[in-house]
Design a protein that fits this description.
The chain has 100 residues and is mostly helical. The protein has a single domain, classed as Monooxygenase (Up-down Bundle). Helices cover 79% and strands 0% of the residues. It is built from four helices and no strands. The longest helix has 25 residues. It starts with a helix and ends in a 7-residue tail after the last helix.
Length: 100
């Protein structure tokens, strides 16, 4: 196998690893978002945690776009986390009222 084939295989393997990692990072917030949706609140999650997570995701998304362009795996990761954060923060700020 020559060097170009080796590089092509490595590139493909690297892309697959990148997409898999991004997928798993993108979905890691979904269980918490679903839990908040079911309970109607985000009790137990500190405002500091949610603020730092939100700022980190938004700033890193901007960085990735400016530094790497529209890199699919990275954008999938950050988009997934931002969507989960929107749900979680919504229930932190506006919890669903429980009927008494």
């Amino acid at each position: 196998m020559d060097i170009s084939e080796t590089l092509a295989n490595q590139f493909t393997t690297t892309k697959i690893i990148g997409w898999l990692a991004s997928f798993f990072f993108a979905i890691c917030g979904i269980p918490q978002a679903v839990d908040c949706w079911k309970r109607g609140n985000a009790d137990g999650l500190s405002a500091w945690f949610l603020t730092s997570w939100s700022l980190g995701e938004v700033l890193m998304t901007i960085y990735v776009i400016l530094q790497h362009g529209l890199d699919g795996p990275l954008l999938v990761n950050y988009a997934g986390n931002i969507l989960a954060l929107i749900v979680i923060v919504r229930y932190k700020i506006l919890p669903r009222r429980q009927l008494e």
